Amino acid sequence: MVSMSLLMKRYNYLLYTLATLGVLYAVIISRYPEYAPKLPECYIGYVYDGDTVELICDGISQSARLIGFDAPETRDASCPSELALGNKATQRLRQILNSEELQISRQGYDKYGRTLARIWVDGKDVGQILIKEKLARRYLGGSRIHWCRVL
After folding, report:
1. Are 22 and 91 found together in one domain?
2. Same domain, yes or no, for 66 and 101?
3. What angle do CA 66, 120, 78 make, to 5 degrees?
4. Range of the domain at 17
5. Is 114 part of the annotated catalytic residue set?
6. What does the CA dihedral 140, 45, 79, 131 come to, rounded to 10 degrees?
7. Cα(41)–Cα(58) distance, rounded to whole angstroms?
8. 3-state SS assignment for residue 39
9. Rounded-to-integer distance, Cα 140 and Cα 34, Å
10. Residue of 65, 94, 118, 137 with catalytic role
């Protein structure tokens, strides 16, 4: 039977080894970025609404929720004013994403399995553009905005 002390030593050694390998990998990649794994190139296939798009990465379609902001709903709008503003936000996002200079950063997945992403156009976060134009509101998680109450 292996003692608990021996198991802890092995566990600590394993953690130390993994941490060392991680640091070594980071140093090598920073010195030789051409050896870093490449993420698949993505582009926008379709704009569903003001904060949800279709990303196509290596030929695979995936729904992506843009983070940092919330736009009014178009599919399940709770009132006519939410639907109207949601349609404006959707059209504006389509217009913004027509730019040649898109940068897409994928940042995990939400509880529905959608990719979480941020998109910059000509160096500007699309969410910040929509917020500035009053077509969206800042949103960092938690309770969703009740658009019909604020419109």
Report:
1. no
2. yes
3. 30
4. 4-35
5. yes
6. 40
7. 6
8. coil
9. 34
10. 65
Q: How far apart are alpha carbons 70 and 51 in whole angstroms?
A: 6
53: nearest Cα among 122, 146, 121: 121
Catalytic residue, chosen from 94, 106, 114, 118, is 114
Do 61 and 18 belong to one domain?
no
144 and 85 within one domain: yes
Q: What percent of the chain has pLDDT over 90?
A: 51
106 and 136 in a single domain? The answer is yes
34 is catalytic: no
Q: Write the single-letter amino acid at 133.
A: E
Per-residue confidence (pLDDT) for residue 120, from 0 to 100: 93
Residue 112 shares a structural domain with residue 146: yes
Q: For residue 92, what pLDDT is reported?
A: 97
Do 76 and 86 touch, CB atoms closer than 8 A? no
Q: What is the DSSP string of 98-133?
A: TSS-EEEEEEEE-TTSPEEEEEEETTEEHHHHHHHT
Token duo for residue 133: 């134009």
Q: Which residues of the chain have pLDDT under 70?
A: 1-2, 29-30, 33-40
